[in-house]
Design a protein that fits this description.
alpha+beta
Length: about 90
């Protein structure tokens, strides 16, 4: 099932509420890039290269879906992953 644009805010809020540290960036034609790191100050201390994902996706809903799938793999027991699995995306 596809994520709808109006669901992106709810997804991001649930990721935030789960205390998963994420940085997101995008350029007009470069697609969404995200980094997920489980340390106190990842923006200050830097992200490990293996935790940076260059999606190349310019459709925000598809990029968010890719980010969610990455979180499910990396943090399967997080409250976000448990919530996300109930949505059927």
């Amino acid at each position: 099932m596809k994520i709808r644009a109006e669901e992106v805010g709810q997804i991001l809020q649930n990721i935030y509420d789960s205390e998963i540290d994420i940085a997101m960036a995008w350029l007009y034609d470069g697609g969404l890039t995200f980094a997920i790191e489980n340390k106190p100050y990842p923006l200050v201390d830097g992200y490990k290269t293996e935790n940076i994902v260059y999606t190349g996706e310019t459709d925000i809903t598809k990029a968010i879906k890719e980010m969610c799938d990455y979180i499910l793999e990396k943090y399967p027991d997080s409250s976000f992953s448990k919530w996300y699995k109930t949505k059927g995306w």
